[in-house]
């Protein structure tokens, strides 16, 4: 889901649980959960256990992981090493 990844990029390096993320982007929790699980496959986001910044409960969180990918925005699908 574009909205989820865009929100996480904009608020990096903050961490959010699925429920707070869903509230922030105003989508269904289930949809956001699936989007968040899918994001980790891109290796740009890390999914780990920690404390949510918003509701302060310890949960499985999704967070922005690789700051270097910011420079490659618009070049999704290309490895950073291929861009000179
Ligand atoms: Zn939360």
Summarize the structure.
This protein is of the alpha+beta class. It has helices at residues 2-11, 18-25, 29-39; strands spanning 15-17, 45-51, 58-64. The chain is 35% helix and 20% strand.
CATH architecture: Orthogonal Bundle
In terms of DSSP E residues, the strand content is 15-25%
Q: Output the CATH homologous superfamily.
A: Winged helix-like DNA-binding domain superfamily/Winged helix DNA-binding domain
Largest sheet: 3 strands, antiparallel
The chain-level structural class is alpha+beta
Briefly, what CATH class? Mainly Alpha
Give structural attributes.
disordered C terminus; 84 residues; Arc Repressor Mutant, subunit A; three-stranded antiparallel β-sheet; binds zinc ion; alpha+beta
Topology (elements, then pairings):
Layout: H1 2-11, E1 15-17, H2 18-25, H3 29-39, E2 45-51, E3 58-64
Antiparallel strand pairs: 1-3, 2-3
Helix pairs in contact: 2-3
Bound molecules: zinc ion (ZN).
Zinc ion is lined by residues 16-17, 19-20, 52, 54-55.
Describe the structure.
This protein is α+β, with helices and mostly antiparallel strands and 84 residues long. It has one domain: Arc Repressor Mutant, subunit A, CATH 1.10.10.10. Helix content is 35%, strand content 20%. The protein has helices at residues 2-11, 18-25, 29-39, and strands spanning 15-17, 45-51, 58-64. The chain has a three-stranded antiparallel sheet with strand order 1-3-2. A hairpin with a 6-residue loop joins strand 2 (45-51) and strand 3. The longest helix has 11 residues, at 29-39. The radius of gyration is 13 Å and the shape is globular. The protein binds zinc ion. Residues 16-17, 19-20, 52, 54-55 line the site of zinc ion.
